[in-house]
Amino acid sequence: MTILSSLKRAIGASLTGIAGANLAAMPGQALYNAVVEEARRPQWYLAGEVPDTMDGRFDMVALVLSLVLLRLEAEPGDAPRQMSADLADRFITDMDGSLRQEGIGDQVVGKHIGHMMAALGGRLGAYRDAGPDDVALGTALRRNLWRAAPADDDAVAWVVTETRRVAARLALLRYPQIAAGTIA
After folding, report:
1. Of 6, 23, 109, 175, which one's alpha carbon is 20 to 30 angstroms from that of 14?
2. Where are the domains of the chain?
3. What confidence tens digit (pLDDT) does each residue in 80-95 have?
């Protein structure tokens, strides 16, 4: 190993350690990690037949994040509102990194992030509007998770039921538990 490659490796390890430490300490990071972990749960893609594609994974993060944001809306005080803003920041950071990893250049990343934030806002509104109506939720899920592609009725019903389960679990949790990253 050359001195130059050793130096590059040492600098890279230091930067990775620093970035990881900073990322872990960012407000809302534990909760955002829990959102992503839930969204990546294999059952969504197996039993729920959500497309296991980049779009499908984005839509699942948007679904679970929407459920958390809706729960935070119901919580009084400034801390839940700040947590919602922190989650939006974590979402932007995550999507920015994903786009760059896919080779999207600096000149258009912002435009893509704008579209993703608009999509998140639309999904949040659709899930809020669905309220307790499972038919309305199923319609919103078909539009957002399967993007109007044919979806098996049993799979949609499974996703509706699982979405309601996650929302019910969130409703039982106190704000400090949610803020610490407990969601399901």
Report:
1. 109
2. 28-179
3. 999 999 999 999 888 8
